[in-house]
Design brief:
Length: 729
């Protein structure tokens, strides 16, 4: 075991370099950092108990079991090799920058070790004649074979080599590999190895035991199948992945049980409002809308809180379904709240829903951050007195001062744009619903009964047009039912998408002109400039000026994120009334904007947008009966990934297919965003690759929860420790 100095180690970045630091010989007198510090660093990695350490498995392995002759090792071609030799020279050089250059030699040849960062103590350490064992990638430099920042240690002749692969652990800032190894190997001696799964179960699942699996992964025997180990297909890995997935499934199912144990006010009445609303609608619900509505209605009748995600492609008609859910809450004597991520979108919902419902006697309150103090107070009063049946707004809904009397249903549109905390905050607005008893509706007051848990929470409906593939939804989101609108309203004509070089902009402007003369309306989306909002704004203004000049006979409007909501509204209104032909916009129109007569969309620098963003933007057209066109302008050269995105956009308008490809291109972590993904729940298993294990784990979880609570507890305690709170979304 080499001595260690707790210098920052970041093995993922540059393995050899990081490990070099980790294994450096420290100054003879170097004080080890106080133990508490290392412990807190371990805690930062989530490593608090011995079992946590034991389950901190290697991310890869290094082969230190052999020593190669120096002359030979050079031909390993890119792979790390281990050599041993005596120091023949040690020198600080200054070309081009200060560096320590050490030469070692064995019988076969010599090798230069180069250190760009080094300590004075190291210089002393490399006294001529000292025996060094070094490991690293050999390159043939100007002065012959050399290793840059190798891992090394001082050894005696004949010091034994390890007989198994050396594990490399994920390490945090300042934790050395050798410290981790020592801590883990101590923990391995102390933990309770009892298997959480019985031999019979293991047998039927064809899994190997916990103890031998873990031990093998930390100390692989010399004859291990290295490939299987590295690729994580070894049965020992399979057991770890299975256990991890089982813990996840158990924890999700338990979250579901916990939710069911909570009280919610049942909203059982589909009454006069719901019926009148349906009758007054200018269209018939699609089959898909009817199906999801039935699912939601059934949930709302229950006296435990609904937690349902309503997925439907852009334009599939989620809003009306949400409004019908709200109608059921109101019919049942409760309030409903609808929160949207942007003012534009919230305002649109407000207008549309108010237009549908106010004639039916529903009081709809409007609450956003931009309201004047007086207006805000008026809205709050309406909400607090229960006079407002339905409240529509932005984040302002979750701010202090907003008190509902009897909030029964919470609806969150474009839910992926909110953080978990924000969604919870809105749900919690219903916690202390004071008027429950007074309202005298439903068993809402059951929540205050002893033994029934503590509180009631409102039902929750989340909506998203960014479809999450089913496996992801089920495994990443804690306890979520999913409804899908998989059908667009009739009469829509498919959108044709073209990918066009930016240098044909003139032609594109011609097309815009022609379309406008035919009475169609056009969105012109300005490029996304992530580095600078100011620049993005500038571009939008410039584009507006340029298009106004190029199209003197048309009315060109501009809407961007920096405008005051009222200003935005003026422009949007004019566009809705077809008084503006061309609307130049930044991505503020990305979500929800609904102007059916707009049938041509131009997106500049489409190569800069993400796939789901492009899909959302494109969804602004194709809402009416006119054939719609989306022109994606790109600036050459376009990178490989961006090209894939543009091709995908051209090939399909199906949101689910696009989401699937997006997932392929980006991987699940990025796809969901860290804050949505239940934290680092899965360290070992890969949902795509290990799908077969997910299915097995799900089945066993069900069975254990029914028949074997002791095993459930033991398994969760082992695998989750204190991390379960992350999952309560
Ligand atoms: P999204 O699912 O993207 O939120 P919206 O709810 O905004 O979609 O609906 C898009 C448009 O389709 C709206 O103008 C809406 O009124 C209309 N719509 C919704 N359902 C139907 C239907 N069943 N038949 C015809 N039009 C519909
Ligand atoms: Mg919508």
């Amino acid at each position: 075991m080499p001595d260690s100095k707790p210098t920052p180690a970041a093995p993922e970045k540059s393995p050899d370099q990081a490990k070099a630091k980790a294994d450096e010989k420290p100054k003879a007198k170097a004080k080890p950092k106080p133990k508490a510090t290392n412990e807190s660093k371990l805690a930062k990695l989530g490593l608090r108990s011995d079992m946590d350490l034991v389950l901190h498995l290697p991310m890869r392995y290094e082969d230190e079991t052999q020593i190669r002759p120096i002359s030979d090792a050079g031909f390993m071609g890119g792979n790390a090799a281990q050599v041993e030799g005596l120091v023949t020279d040690c020198d600080i050089q200054y070309r081009p920058r200060r560096q320590l250059v050490v030469t070692i030699a064995d019988d076969s040849g010599s090798l230069v070790m180069r250190f760009l960062n080094f300590y004075g103590s190291q210089v002393k350490q490399f006294a001529v004649g000292v025996r060094i064992r070094a490991r690293g990638e050999i390159r043939h430099g100007f002065f012959g074979a050399e290793m840059v920042h190798p891992t090394y240690k001082v050894v005696e002749e004949g010091d034994p080599l390890p007989d198994s692969l050396t594990p490399v652990y994920p390490a945090g800032e300042g934790l050395s590999q050798s410290y981790l190894r020592k801590a883990i190997s101590n923990a391995l001696k102390r933990v309770d190895w009892r298997d959480t799964l019985s031999p019979a179960l293991l047998d039927s699942l064809q899994l190997q035991g916990f103890e031998p699996s873990v031990k093998l992964l930390h100390n692989p025997p010399p004859d291990v199948d290295e490939h299987a180990l590295m690729e994580r297909t070894h049965p020992a890995w399979t057991r770890m992945k299975f256990d991890e997935l089982l813990a996840q499934q158990l924890s999700l199912k338990r979250a579901q049980q916990a939710r069911r144990a909570k009280g919610a006010a049942a909203l059982p009445v589909v009454g006069t409002l719901s019926e009148a609303f349906l009758k007054a609608l200018p269209f018939q619900l699609t089959d898909a809308q009817q199906r999801v509505l039935a699912e939601i209605r059934a949930d709302l009748r229950e006296s435990f809180p609904m937690q349902r995600l309503l997925q439907g492609d852009v334009g599939s008609g989620k809003t009306v379904v949400a409004a019908l859910a709200a109608a059921q809450a109101i019919d049942s004597g409760f309030q409903a709240a609808l929160m949207a991520p942007t003012e534009i979108l919230a305002e649109q919902h407000f207008r549309k829903i108010a237009q549908w419902m106010e004639p039916l006697g529903v009081r709809v309150a409007w609450l956003t951050g931009s309201l004047k103090k007086k207006e805000k107070e008026a809205a709050q009063a309406m909400i607090g007195s229960g006079e407002a049946h339905l409240v529509i707004g932005t984040h302002a809904l979750i701010q202090e001062g907003v008190e509902f009397t009897r909030l029964g249903l919470v609806i969150v549109d474009e839910q992926h744009r909110f953080g978990v905390g924000q969604r919870l905050a809105l749900r919690n607005k219903g916690l202390d619903a004071k008027g429950l008893d007074a309202a005298g509706v439903g068993p809402g007051n059951a929540g205050r009964n002893a033994g029934q848990g503590d509180q009631t929470v409102p039902h929750q409906l989340m909506m998203s047009a960014t479809p999450i593939p089913r496996t992801l939804a089920m495994t990443y989101y804690a306890d979520l039912e999913v409804s899908v609108i998989d059908q667009l309203p009739p009469g829509r004509t498919p959108i044709v998408t073209r990918v066009i070089d930016q240098n044909r902009r003139e032609e594109v402007i011609e097309r815009v002109h022609a379309a406008a003369l035919e009475g169609r309306q056009v969105y012109w989306v300005c490029p996304l400039i992530e580095e600078s909002e100011a620049l993005q704004l500038q571009t939008a203004t410039d584009t507006h000026a340029a298009l106004s000049a190029a199209l003197p006979d048309l009315r060109v409007g501009l809407v961007h994120g920096r405008m005051k909501p009222a200003e935005k509204q003026v422009v949007m209104d004019a566009f809705t009334r077809a008084e503006v032909h061309v609307l130049v916009a930044t991505t503020v129109i990305e979500v929800g904007v609904d102007v059916p007569n707009a049938s041509l969309m131009v997106i500049e620098h489409a190569e800069r947008f993400g796939l789901s963003q492009l899909h959302q933007l494109r969804g602004r057209v194709g809402r009416g009966s006119a054939a719609s066109i989306c022109l994606l302008l790109y600036q050459s050269p376009v990178g490989q990934v961006a090209k894939q995105r543009l091709m995908t956009m051209r090939e399909t308008t199906d949101g689910f297919e696009i989401a699937r490809r997006d997932l392929e291109i980006r991987g699940p972590g990025e796809f969901l965003g860290a804050r949505q993904s239940g934290e680092a729940m899965l360290r070992f298993a890969d949902l795509e690759r290990d799908q077969w294990l997910v299915d097995k784990a799900r089945g066993l979880a069900q069975m254990l929860l029914q028949n074997d609570p002791a095993t459930v507890e033991a398994h969760l305690a082992r695998w989750l420790g204190g991390r379960e709170e992350f999952l309560k979304v």
